[in-house]
Design brief:
The complex is a heterodimer of chains A (237) and B (477). Chain A is mostly helical. Chain A has 10 helices and no strands. In chain B, helix 12 crosses helix 14. The longest helix of chain B has 19 residues.
């Protein structure tokens, strides 16, 4: 292994990861500076159930009309994000548990997942370029983030065999891209995974409290006076 | 008022009309003079004020909804505006939300402040930009929240639209209809400027009608009676245009032996603050109702059939007013269901024999909790109840939501995109479409008239009243 590859697999990655963590801490502090309103009404449902249901929404394509009507798009989403998970896992496996990729079946599995994600990424890019709605709303960040992900998948596909005797450049490319990502991601749309728990939490909390979600689990109002069983905190009665 | 649409964009280019605002200033109306109702100042630094309000009013749920959008476009086909104008990307929820999101990115968020072009951040530069924003958030969105339910990220575009409306309302950059209704609600305590005399006389008239119908002089529509089980609050439309729902409620309450009253003040459960985004108006109107219940020591607040009134009084109003809920607050449909459950009223569904379908109000189904309750009542009082598709929380807006009925300049676009609703209604083959929302009544009537549908709009109270089996003389009541 060359010094360059060793450096980029280790110190550079750790420095970039620390940078990402630091920026995210600042970002979270920034988000928490904004106030969240207190709920003052009697509950008709359950905030906890609403939050859980809202957070699980991403794994429930039947729950939204938009994903129900277009399962193909949902399948692309799943494949794409499985590829992301596999590629990120590879960035840790290669330097810290290289023996894992000595198993041929594991390498093939990772290549299959990352390769499929590469194809899903290309399809997503085509959709973004062809669909007039997406063309109108897309920013440079939307395009560049997607292109970078496609390149990341391509590099990951070539890197997971971890065969430095044959060639180091796929690994250098993969870890170079990874380091760049770690620095770029906090400022790009790719950080949406940081916001997902927040948007889903607040939407689930509000709609769960009102009994709007989860759908079909709330008993109907009359008959028993369920409003009286749940008072806001601080209600002296 | 002349309005036109720009090129392929459906966004209406309507100028800012300020005639009513100028008149209100000349008349020195207390709401204007007292600074509660804001008017447009052409000489003011409105852009700076807009940006200050934007920065000052952000909450955490708003901020994360502004940052989390990944521009996937999945919300597009949940919106009846886009479904009706599929070649027009400016009709999509994401594009509409992006018009405020880009300002947020340019002035509040990180990357957009440094590299605005990279994330399509942008600003508002003059009052014309603010007016353009007004036409988007008031004119091409009914804030129905259908897109919110269809966003994989959980971005609440309905919330963003209301937030933006609130910023513009603070500057007087609003459609004239929004200003007029807000003015009336601030000035009179009800959004249709019903005088106390009209209110009381109409209630007496309806009381007499029910007495005549039942042949029972004990029937009453009490005003300000203390210690009742129910404080009944209504929509001013029931006084001004169609008082029959008051008589229907009075008849049913009488037969059910209900202890109830209307308040002399604080009877308007509607709340234009929901539509204008003005939390102060929302707080004041809602507090009027809550304080009426406290003053009269009512055990429960009951809201007549009204979608936005229900959402405002049951859910949002307590937050706006900073008022912890102390008594149960429910829709009259829930009250009717309780009467049926407890056997306090009997009904004969054969009296409503023709096909009835149900239209879920956005504010009740998507922003509230009532979906099955009205269906349960309708199945008991109608012999041919049929669902429309989609239904419940996936139902399409009546197209008159979000206060759009008060904004004449957007009516052509509203009726154009109503073809989605018209197709949905037509497919049911029902003779009646029932809704528990006064706004939806007018919205649906517009759709039915415009698309020549062989249907009539009814409310739950009307169907229950028609099916009501009156007890023998000497029985209850």
């Amino acid at each position: 292994m060359s010094d360059m590859l060793r450096l980029i697999e280790n110190e550079v990655q750790l420095a970039a990861l620390a940078f990402l963590g630091l920026v995210y801490i600042v970002r979270l502090i920034w988000i928490f500076r904004f106030a969240s309103r207190k709920e003052r009404t009697f509950a008709a449902g359950s905030q906890g159930a609403g939050i859980r249901r809202s957070l699980a929404n991403i794994a429930m394509p039947w729950a939204m009309e938009s994903t129900r009507k277009d399962p193909w798009l949902y399948a692309q989403f799943v494949v794409f994000h499985l590829g992301v998970a596999a590629a990120i896992a590879a960035t840790f496996i290669i330097p810290y548990a290289p023996h894992v990729f000595e198993i041929r079946a594991v390498v093939l599995l990772f290549q299959a997942v990352i390769g499929a994600a590469f194809l899903a990424g290309v399809l997503r890019l085509v959709r973004r370029l062809v669909n007039p709605v997406l063309r109108l709303i897309s920013s440079a960040d939307d395009y560049v983030s997607l292109v970078l992900m496609i390149l990341f998948f391509a590099a990951g596909f070539l890197a997971v065999p971890n065969d430095i005797d044959r060639a180091e450049w796929p690994l250098i490319a993969f870890f170079g891209l990874t380091a760049f990502f770690l620095v770029y991601v906090p400022f790009s749309k790719i950080s949406h995974y940081l916001y997902y728990p927040f948007t889903r939490f607040y939407l689930g909390r509000t709609l769960g409290h009102r009994g709007a979600i989860p759908q079909g689990t709330r008993p109907m109002s009359p008959g028993k006076d369920n409003e009286r069983t749940s008072r806001p905190k601080g209600d002296p009665r | 008022m002349k309005s036109r649409r720009s090129g392929s964009s459906g966004v209406v280019r309507s100028p800012l009309e300020t005639g009513s605002q100028s008149q209100a200033k000349r008349d020195a109306l207390p709401s204007v003079a007292g600074g509660r109702l804001q008017t447009y100042d052409p000489a003011g630094d409105n852009v700076r004020r807009f940006l200050e309000l934007l920065a000052g009013r952000l909450t955490r749920p708003l901020t994360v909804s502004l940052t989390a959008c990944v521009h996937c476009g999945l919300c597009a086909e949940s919106c009846h505006y886009f479904l009706a104008r599929p070649d027009d990307p400016t009709m999509t929820p994401v594009w509409k939300a992006d018009q405020i999101r880009k300002v947020f990115k340019r002035h509040i968020d990180w990357t957009g402040r440094i590299l605005p072009w990279w994330v399509k951040a942008g600003s508002v530069h003059d009052d014309e930009d603010l007016n353009r924003l007004k036409n988007i958030v008031f004119g091409s969105c009914s804030a129905c929240r259908r897109c919110t339910y269809n966003c994989p990220m959980g971005v609440d575009t309905g919330l963003l639209v209301r937030f933006t409306r609130g910023l513009l309302t603070e500057l007087g950059v609003v459609p004239e209809g929004v200003f007029n209704v807000s003015r009336d609600q601030w000035e009179t305590g009800n959004q249709m400027a019903v005088s106390e005399q009209d209110y009381l006389e109409t209630l007496e008239w309806m009381r007499d009608e029910v007495r005549a119908e039942l042949g029972d002089d004990k029937v009453d529509i009490p005003i300000d009676r203390p210690d009742c089980d129910i404080l009944y609050t209504i929509n001013p439309r029931e006084i001004k245009f169609d008082p029959r729902p008051i008589a229907q409620a009075a008849k049913i309450f009488h037969v059910a032996g209900e202890s109830w009253t209307l308040p002399r003040w604080g009877w308007d459960q509607t709340n234009f603050g929901l539509f204008s985004g003005d939390d102060r108006l929302g707080a004041w109107v809602a507090r009027n109702v809550y304080e009426a219940a406290e003053r009269l020591r009512a055990k429960r607040i009951v809201i007549s059939e009204c979608g936005h009134g229900y959402r405002s009084t049951r859910w949002e109003g307590y937050t706006w007013a900073g008022f912890d809920q102390r008594v149960p607050t429910e829709s009259v449909v829930v009250t009717l269901k309780r009467h049926l459950d407890q056997g306090r009223i009997s009904v004969d569904p054969s009296r409503n024999a023709e096909g009835v379908t149900f239209h879920d109000s956005c504010n009740i189904a998507r922003s509230g909790d009532l979906v099955e309750e009205p269906r349960d009542v309708l199945r008991r009082v109608c012999s041919d109840f049929r669902e429309m598709t989609p239904n419940r929380r996936e139902n399409y807006c009546c197209t008159g939501g979000g206060g759009l009925l008060s904004m004449a300049e957007y009516r052509p676009l509203r009726l154009e995109v109503a073809k989605i609703k018209a197709e949905q209604l037509r497919a049911t083959g029902a003779k009646y479409v029932c809704t528990m929302c006064h706004n939806c009544i007018d919205g649906l009537n517009d759709v039915i008239k415009h698309y020549k549908l062989p249907m009539k709009v009814v409310q739950v109270l009307e169907l229950v009243s028609k099916a009501l089996v009156l007890p023998e003389k000497g029985g209850r009541g």
